[in-house]
Write a structure and sequence with these properties.
Rossmann fold; 359 residues; 14% strand; 3 domains; alpha/beta; five-stranded parallel sheet
């Protein structure tokens, strides 16, 4: 049997350590804990660790110093940095130093579990397979995004406007996973591009980037098919976090799509049962009205089932009674036939007896 993967949680806040431990332990991981960088480094040097979750601000040896020490000795060990007080400069620094990902406190538990799972499986490290099309008419922004995404193991392709980006999508050997699009651009703006992109390559998820667009423009971008919004100016860790969050949400969306397609192919009676189970019998109720409706629905359903069973029983009883009547009728006919035959035989015997007496 394969031994469980080991996660090292490093934070000077015992409450955070215990919280993360309670979130990850049910997934089958072996958990080791440390409350400062010095103890964490000692554990890493003496134990096999699969993933490190580390806070940044700690006494003794900080998370940044721990990251530097670990990467100098164990380059392949995945380290995920977590903090609620880090500055943009610090977050940028840890990403460039080799942190697999930076996560902002408070952390989504589902995102934490997925990030750890992907770090262990190698999916987080293989994000090079994720292709991102960057569409912005501002060259310094394009170059900055290219550098950031490339350093985070994404493949970035650059375009200066929507028309150029659309040509790159049409000529690409395989679809882009995401397209990061500015709204205000010449020739073809971001809103027009999003609409055209959804027609040409629906698999590419559009990420809207803007610092100037008004509410109506943002609404229109979403209406055309925009998946999420990142506001300018953005710092590097926030950008990478948003892309990682987008990947999690898009994976969830794909799973939901697969479930819906599987449900669509079910026979009618199975769909009816599932809808009844999920939307009536076991549906969560948030108000008295909903509880009443659910209860009434359950009563009606079971009453209908009861009436159907009673009707079936009555029909069965009628069928049995009718069968008995038919059987009794047949028996009466048979008895009648036997009696007539008996009378005939007796008559013949009597006639034969009279004939003998006469002769």
């Amino acid at each position: 049997m394969e031994s469980p993967k080991t996660i090292l949680i490093v934070d000077d806040d015992k409450g955070i350590v215990d919280l993360f431990k309670n979130v990850l332990e049910p997934d089958g991981y072996a958990i080791k804990t440390a409350y400062n960088g010095i103890d964490a480094l000692e554990i890493i040097n003496t134990s096999h660790i699969d993933v490190v979750l580390s806070d940044i601000h700690m006494p003794g040896l900080s998370g940044v110093e721990l990251l530097k020490a670990v990467k100098s000795r164990y380059k392949g060990l995945p380290i995920i940095m977590i903090s609620g007080m880090a500055t943009a400069i610090t977050r940028d620094k840890v990403v460039k130093m080799g942190s697999l990902m930076f996560m902002e406190k408070p952390v989504s538990f589902e995102l934490l579990r997925k990030t750890v799972k992907d770090a262990i499986s190698g999916e987080l490290q293989k994000q090079i397979a994720k292709r991102i099309l960057v569409v912005d008419d501002h060259e310094p922004t394009r170059n900055m995004l290219n550098e950031v995404l490339t350093s985070a193991n994404y493949v970035a392709v650059l375009a200066g406007n929507g028309r150029e980006a659309l040509e790159k999508i049409k000529n690409a050997e395989k679809p882009f996973d995401y397209a990061m699009i500015d709204i205000h651009m010449p020739e073809m703006n971001g809103i027009e591009f999003i609409g055209a992109c959804k027609n040409v390559c629906p698999a590419t998820l559009p990420i809207i980037m803007t610092g100037e667009a008004d509410t109506d423009e943002i609404k229109e971008a979403y209406k055309q098919g925009g998946f999420t919004l990142i506001k300018k100016p953005f710092d590097i860790p926030t950008l990478l976090f948003c892309v990682a969050q987008l990947q999690y949400e898009s994976d969830s969306l794909k799973e939901e799509t697969v479930k819906k397609e599987a449900f669509r192919k079910l026979p009618f009676y199975k769909k009816l049962y599932i809808n009844l189970r999920d939307n009536v019998i076991f549906a969560p109720s948030s108000s008295k009205v909903k509880r009443f409706i659910r209860t009434a629905g359950i009563v009606i359903v079971f009453a209908a089932i009861g009436l159907a069973l009673i009707a079936t029983a009555i029909s069965f009883e009628k069928w049995i009674n009718q069968g008995h009547s038919q059987i009794e009728s047949v028996i009466d006919k048979v008895v009648g036939y036997l009696e007539r035959d008996e009378q005939r035989e007796l008559q013949k015997i009597k006639e034969f007896s009279n004939w003998l007496d006469f002769h």
